[in-house]
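Protocol step 4 of 5: obtain the predicted structure for the target chain.
Materials: sequence only (see below). No template structures provided, no constraints applied. The aim of this step is simply to have a reference model before the mutagenesis design in step 5. Sequence pasted as it appears in the construct record:
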Amino acid sequence: MLKKGAVVSSVFTYIADLLFPLSCKMCGISIRMGETPGLCESCWSTIQFLDGPCCPRCGKPFASEAALSYSPNHQCGDCREKPPYYDRAISVAHYDKALAEAIHLFKYSKKTQWSRPLGRLLLKRVSDLGKFDVILAVPLHPKRLRQREFNQSLLLAREVSLETGLPLQVDNLCRVRWTQPQIELNGEERRKNVRRAFEVKRPDQVEDRCVVLIDDVFTTGATVNECARILKRAGAKSVAVLTLARMV
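Step 4 output (structure tokens):
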């Protein structure tokens, strides 16, 4: 038997579907209100998960299935040439199709209800990070936060914290310098752009702890790498990066 709350929710959803019909942002078919707002189940199922061989340090996919056959810890050329400050980076899926659309709706159309289904995607890879103590999110500059009204990475981190029971440090890692949007820059420009843009306000809360740093998209890794550098300087024992999507 359905509980009273479930019945009310079902009735509300039914009425909302009648009054405000929705269509999938990708294929245009009519859809009901659901946990993936703006996308149909068929399009949502096209997400391409990153489950093949990849660099054990930065998570960059390898072209060959045999890349790790003889050396499971073989790192990509970039990581060997200039090791990142983070200890490991994992992304859930390719930044493509349905996932790219969902992240765009989440960030720029203020569809904050996306935090739950996207957060559940992150949980698919949490166990691959090993043991960790605290969760942090890549912060926004206060000016950017006022413009957007929420930090999408923090909402994702909250979902992971709720499911794992591990503490989420909301404002310990902060962005102290305004930077140009990374999307407008190339790799080297991105690294220079975020240099000294972050600060740890309470180093004692990360000292000797294994930290998981959460963000939405891994592009060049410049932002999370700078965050990891600051966290390591503050005394963090290790920093693992978990992102929803990776641009390949």
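Step 4 remarks: The longest helix spans residues 4-19. The beta strands are 22-23, 30-31, 88-94, 134-137, 173-175, 198-200, 210-218, 238-246.
Proceed to step 5.
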